[in-house]
Amino acid sequence: xxxxPLDRVLLxxxxxxxxxxxxxxxxxVGTFSILAYTIGFGILLxxxxxxxxxxxxxxELPAVVIVSTLLPVSLAVGLVGQYLPTWRVPSLIxxxxxxxxxxxxxxxxxxxxxxxxxxxxxxxxxxLVLFSLPIVLVLSGYTKYAFxxxxxxxxxxxxxxxLLTFLRRGRPKTDLFRYLPTLFFLLTLCFTLxxxxx
Length: 198
Description:
Largest sheet: none
Helix content: over 70%
Order of helices and strands: HHHHHHHH
Strand content: under 5%
Mean pLDDT: 85
Number of domains: 1
């Protein structure tokens, strides 16, 4: 299914925002967090470009699960590295173990339940960090209220993940595909504004 003209505009705007984050980055953070954020927004940019070129069906490929896991995981690792520097190494090790587990459970002989549990666990932990850490930082007065947009963006990533799960479970594609470009745009906008005005 090819994106509609409006969807193409939303995806193009998403690609511009993601490329801005990759090229300009987030000011005032260390190399560790910049690298993690660049990986996350780089993955998002590549995904959007593939959708624009190949259509929304590209999201049904098995490798998308592994690659899409990199988005919340890398953003969560970047956030931890930026605001909880003593947890940098443990978060990086945990992210590596989680990504390796996702890749291993995607093998043809791996049980389907294991793949589902591992993906849910990895996405759940990274999503919890992305959602809760900005709230804690805002409530403690460490960042501005605009940083809550990062929490909203992480909630939208969770919603996107649910839609992709329904897509793999055989739900009608046209119903699900029509929400994806808007979700991609909104979550990228939330992250961009949240990081810019923190």
